[in-house]
Structures are given as structure tokens and as C-alpha cells.
Amino acid sequence: MSFLMSSASAPRTEKVPATAPVFELIEVEKVFQVRPPNSGLSRKTVGLRALDGVRLRVDTGTSIALVGESGSGKSTLLRVLLGLDAPTGGRALYHGAPIREARAKGRDFARDVAMVYQDARGSLDPRMTVEALIAEPLRHFNIVQKDQIKARVAELLDRVGLPTDAGRRYAAGLSGGQVRRVAIARALASEPSVLVADEAVSGLDVSTQAQLLTLLRGLQRDMNLTLVFITHDLGVASYLCDEIAIMYLGRIVETGPTDVVLNAPAHPYSAALRAAAPRFFEPMPEPLSGEIPSPLDLPPGCRFSTRCPAAQPDCGERDPQLGRFGAHRAVACLHPLTNPQA
Amino acid sequence: MTAKAAPAPATVPPAGPSGNGAARGKRSMFRRRPFFTVALIVSLAYILGAIFAPLVAPYDPVAQSIDAMMQPPTGAHPLGTDSYGQDILSRVIFGARYALIIGFCSVLIGAVGGLIIGLAAGLSGGWLEWALMRLIDSILALPSLILAVAFIAILGQGVDKVVIAVGLSMIGPFSRTVRADVMQVRVQGFVEAAHLMSIPYLQVVWRHVLPNVIFPLAVQVTIRISEAILVSSSLSFLGIGVTPPTPDWGLMIAEGRDFVSFAPWMAAMPGFALALLLIALSIVGDGIREEFDPKGRRGS
Ligand SMILES: Nc1ncnc2c1ncn2[C@@H]1O[C@H](COP(=O)(O)OP(=O)(O)OP(=O)(O)O)[C@@H](O)[C@H]1O
Ligand code: SF4
Ligand SMILES: [Mg+2]
After folding, report:
1. Top-level CATH class of A7-253?
2. pLDDT in tens, A200-213
3. How many secondary structure helices (H) and strands (E) does chain B include?
4. A278 φ, ψ (degrees, to nearest 5)
5. Residue A328, SS3?
6. Is the pTM here over 0.80, yes or no?
7. Complex-level ipTM
8. Which site from A53, A94, A291, B37 is most exposed, i.e. has the minimal number of CB atoms within 10 Å?
């Protein structure tokens, strides 16, 4: 978002018009056709709204955290951003062009947008050495001359804090933290400007998480990466990301600068998350009592109305869209908790 | 915040035990698996004997001698002679040639055919996969010996025909394991990651799917060689495999069967040679599978 543009350095922004954000999602909707539970033998399918009216803008050089309960649609949103899934409604743009088209056009999109999978080990071919794994994107995108590949691999290993001799190992012989580092090195090999990461530090012990976060933050600053980071952990979000987008049942319900949103949440759901996770670096506990509604059967009106402590009578009638809330924030609530100036 | 307090270290501590463990494990495999080692030595002895058969065998395997018919084991003929006066030891040694050649070649045919069909079935999906799998299922319903007999009936007799018949009869089981492996590999993260990198599909198959399928297939090959040898010997035993006077173990057992009451060595010697080779090969195959199968070690 615009307040961050000042910190973005020139080289990356030159090639695109300054106005076009890296990613822009406009009313994006993703409906999966699934067979409803207890449907017996019938072949009838119903629509599962994994994403519903998602609005998001990711500017060059920003780091944005995507936070939400399990099943809120974070991974689906990521797949749309990467062009792996086509949205069933709305528009998903990359530098102003539809993402799927940008991806189909050639290697540039694949080179520019790199991904670190949550299952980092699974994303690395078990029969390739670390060196071969990192060399693959170098070769595929012709990043360096053939005779310089070895040197570049060593450079990348060093960049992510792995010893050079790790290049001869296989992923099976590396620890969880080392595997994440390899995945990050591999993602960086194509010299991307956007790094997308799905739970890149979860499931690791606290000190390893801290090391990786320090590494990611350093990389983000030094290479001026645009970072889209899925996490369960508000502490991770606030450490690593300038901005935060909080998702609930397929919709982004609040966005804004991380510290502002977390200090004074405007959406009751953000407030509940904040209250439930008072300590950083701990996975998110159940933030609220009550069942999360099934995405197959969304409640009428506001999707949070069944669990919202601040619900009013009109909440069951009107479905709030994500709308501007002050200069840099947006919230999808009819009765925000704070006033826009906060 | 905690993260600020903990700076990233310049390097990461050396890998856990699993990293060095794999290397150490390979070196001492022979000591950890004495049966495997013995079986490997026996198998190698067979292979060497087969390769250097003309040097090792004391007689020409098809040289008949009226003076030395059906002799029990003696100094001149350590394993005795058969009803044509042919030296059984020489025939057993040359028989290893046929057994191993037929075994290797037919398994190779089965593995290559299985790899092609299994890859096609596992990658295609849709009606093609359905058709291929029904084909494989209908083939698999028959034991490989019956199937080999059917192919022999079409192709006729002879070493080359036996190789083809046994090879064809093994395509079914190979296809099935390859397809199962392909289905497992193609949904893995690293395949999607390669796709995300916009690596062309065929290149992904070649670089990432194939190597992860070939290895379990190679293990299967070592295990199934003994099956191929057994089936080919059975064909010869039934009199529809290789033709006499080829020194083939199955054929020798069949010939010796008529004399088993007063010249038991005629059938027993090739039978023993066959049994020992089959046992040795399957122990070697099992050992290789257990040692190198990544599935058994994954999750470390
Ligand atoms: N391919 C699919 N087919 C049908 N439904 C799907 C598919 N992918 C996701 N969903 C559904 O969409 C919803 C959102 O899933 P998604 O994986 O995006 O959630 P998430 O926020 O990433 O959760 P988690 O934190 O557990 O990873 C879930 O209800 C899920 O069941
Ligand atoms: S619109 Fe109403 S129910 Fe929905 S979050 Fe706001 S106050 Fe709660
Ligand atoms: Mg997910």
C-alpha cells in the first residue's frame, strides 16, 4: 500500500508502471464443486466458496502476512496468486494483467514469482542433491553461464546460512530448518522480485523459527523482495510483515499496517484473534467459542455474525464488503470497533 | 520480540545423525547382512561361471559319449553323466548361462514394457488409463507361467521365444507397480514445484517423475529375475521351452525324471543348481530392497 512505496528502491519499480501493484485481486471468488457430505450415491455437487469477494492489493516492496484460521482459504488465495488455480469470479491481476495469462505467456512470471512451500521437504526432489536442486532454476531460467553455476549455488547456500558442503547432501539427510533454507535458496535462485511463502516457518522449534525469520527479513530488505507470507502466528506476522490481511471464511475481513491493526483491531474477528494470541511465536489457539460455519452453508448477512460478540440486528441482513477504513486500512464490518482515525 | 534477540547464525550446525548415518550404513551393509553377503557371493559365482563357462567346464556340454552313460558322480565326472553320456557338471555350468541370460533378458523386456505402460497409465488418467488398467488386470488374472505357455503356443519354441514369452508375461505386474509409483510421485510437492517453475511437462516427467520411478523398478527387477528363471525352467521342464540338447536346467530335470529311481543325480544336480540360484537371487533382491527403498527410510 502506498505508504510503503517510499521505502521501495528504484530498480524493481522501473520495469512496471508505478501505479500497477504486483498483485491485485478484485472481488475474487473461487468456488469448488464438491459432493456434499451424506450425499450418498447421488452425483449432485454443491459449490464450496473457498474465496468469496476477496479484495487485495500487494504493492512492490511490501511484505504482507495472510492470517486466518484453518480452512479460511489462505492456501487457495495463494494458489490463485500463483496462477495455479483460476478464480471462478472476479479478476486476479499481476502488474495489471490477468495472472493466468501472465503465467501462460512464458517464463517471466515463473521467474519473477517464487514460492516456498509449507511442506518444504516434499517440494524438493528426494533424488537430487541440494546442489542439483538449486542449480535447476539457475539453468532453467538461464540466470548464469554454465561454468558459473557451481559458484552461484555456493553463493546462494551461503546467503541462506548453509555450509557449502551441504550441496552434496540429499534433502533426506537435512534437518527441518536446513530443508527450509534449501527451499528458500532455491526460490531465490531465479532472482525473483516476489517471494510467496506458505507457513514457511511453522512446525519448527522457536529458535529455528527465529533464525529463519531473521534470514527472511534480511533477504526482504537486501533484495527488496515483495513478500506474501501465510502464517498462523500473529507474532511472526508482526515481526516480518509491514501489512497484514486477516481472513475469515474465504474473505479478507481486515487489512492494514500490521502494528496498527494488531494494536487497535477494527474487525471483531481481528480483535478475537489478537486477544487469543497474547504471546508471540505460539500457534493460534481457537480464537472463539462456537463452531466455525461450514463454507458450504455460509450464514446470511455477515459471515462472522454467528460468532461475533459485537453483532447487531442488521448484521444478519447485510453482507459487509471490505471497504476503506481510514487512510491505509480496510475492514469488512458494519460496526467497526474503532474509529477510522485510530 | 524474541526474534530480534536471536540473530541468525553464520552457519548451521552439522546435520543430525541421519546425514552421516546413510553413508556409514552403506559401508557396513555386507557385515550387517551376512545372508545377503553369502547370497551375493553365490550369485556372483553363478554369473562368473556362466560368463567363463567354456573355461570352467571340464567337457563340452553337448558332447555325447557311449562309454560314459549314466555314470554316478566320480572323479572324472564330479556330478555324473546323463543318459547320453554328457557331463552333468559341464551342462549345469552352461545351463547357468541360459538361465541367467533368459532371466535377465526377459525381465528387461517385462520392465521396459511395464515402464512404458505404467507411465502411460499413471500419467494419462481418463479413458486411456482405464483401458490400460483393464488390459493389465486381465493379463494379471493369469499366473505368469500360464501366460508364458500361451505366448509359447503362439511363438513356438527356442531360447529367443522363451525370452519373449516370459518377458511379455511379466509386463503386467511391472506395469502395476510402475503405475502405483507414478500415481504416488505425480502428486508430490516437487512435481508441482517444477510445474510452478514453468518447466515443460515432458521435462518434468523426465527429470522428476522417471528417476523416482526407475529406482523402485530396478529393485523390482532384481527381485523378479528369479521368477523369470523359474518360469523359463518350467517351460523347458514341460517340454515347450528351449529344445534339446541345449544344456538347460529345466530340460535336464525333465530328462532325468525318467531315471530318477536308479540315476537320481541326473535330475537332482540341475535341480539343486536351480534352487540355489533362485534362493540366492531372492535374498539379494530382498536385501537391496530393504537397504535402498526410500519408503522404508522416509520420514527421518
Ligand atoms: N481442491 C479443492 N477442492 C475442494 N475444496 C477445497 C479444495 N481446496 C480447498 N478446498 C476447501 O476450501 C477451503 C479453504 O481451504 P484452504 O486450503 O485454502 O484453507 P487454509 O486457510 O489454507 O487452511 P490451512 O490453514 O488449514 O492450510 C476449505 O474449506 C477447503 O476444504
Ligand atoms: S458486521 Fe456485525 S456481525 Fe459482522 S463482524 Fe461486524 S459487527 Fe460482527
Ligand atoms: Mg493452507
Report:
1. alpha beta
2. 887 788 888 888 88
3. 15, 0
4. -70, -25
5. coil
6. no
7. 0.79
8. A291
